[in-house]
Amino acid sequence: MHAAALCAGAAAWLVVAGRGQGRRRAAELFAGGAAESPPEERWESGRRRLQVWLSGRREWLCLPVALVLGVLGESVLPMAAGAVAVPLVRRWLRRRKLREDREHRADGVVDLCGAVVGELRAGREPGQALLVAVRGTGALGVAEPGVSAAARFGGDVPGALGQAACEPGLDGLAGVAACWRVAVDGGAGLAAGLDRLESSLRAERRRREELRAQLAGAWSTVAVLALLPVLGMGLGAALGADPLRVLLHSPAGLVCLVAGGLLEAAGLAWAGRIVRAGEAV
């Protein structure tokens, strides 16, 4: 059964590789028989294609790891665990991607404030300055059309900015909307208000980066604690024991495996919650 699973994985890999090779041959044929690339270029091209392919499918790496463990331990439990881990890892990767996108948008708001201030001091009108800054920075994402339309046609710019501030990571646009409203209603200088807002947002970003650097050691400790069971199993195998057979083929081993997995998950969740609470301070 394990040999059949291994052969099925190898066949799937050969099919994918064969399709890629066929596409490359077709491209060379229609290109008029261009000269073959050097081995270094082919290796670099293949490495880049593999990185692009894995960039959105990293959770599927759980399956080959589980397959190897299943073959070594002669059990289907690792493969079942790998199948269960795929959606969990996908969810974790998606949450991390959303957090990175949110931080990238927050940094874009800071750049937008600086760009608007620069355009205003260069003599542009507020609406035109905002329009040029939005196009130049691309910081608003899906909220860009509404803000650009309001700035171009003289619409409710503070309202458009306030609506865009509801998007994740664009909270700083609420301050931009407030500065804009005060400048229009009270006649205050928009450039001075946005300059102070930019300084405040940059200080907040520096504080977040410093806090993340201080918590890097805590995250490293969490990662080391997560790898300790794997290191223990490797040490047991190096001493001549067979930890996989004990864990997967004996009642006591299965009980220890389930209990250890639950304790490991609870410990990681607890440690991660502590560190995330520190990041939120």
Automatic annotation (TrEMBL):
Where does this chain mainly localize?
Answer: membrane
Task: Report the subcellular localization.
Answer: Cell membrane
Q: Give the membrane topology, semicolon-separated if more than one.
A: Multi-pass membrane protein
Q: Which domain of life is it from?
A: Bacteria
Q: Where are the transmembrane segments?
A: 63-89, 215-239, 251-271
Q: Does the keyword Membrane apply?
A: yes
Q: Does the keyword Magnesium apply?
A: no
Q: Which UniProt keywords apply?
A: Cell membrane, Membrane, Transmembrane, Transmembrane helix
* Residue ranges of coiled coil: none
Name one matching Pfam family. Answer: T2SSF
Q: Ranges for the Type II secretion system protein GspF domain?
A: 117-234
The protein's name is Type II secretion system F family protein
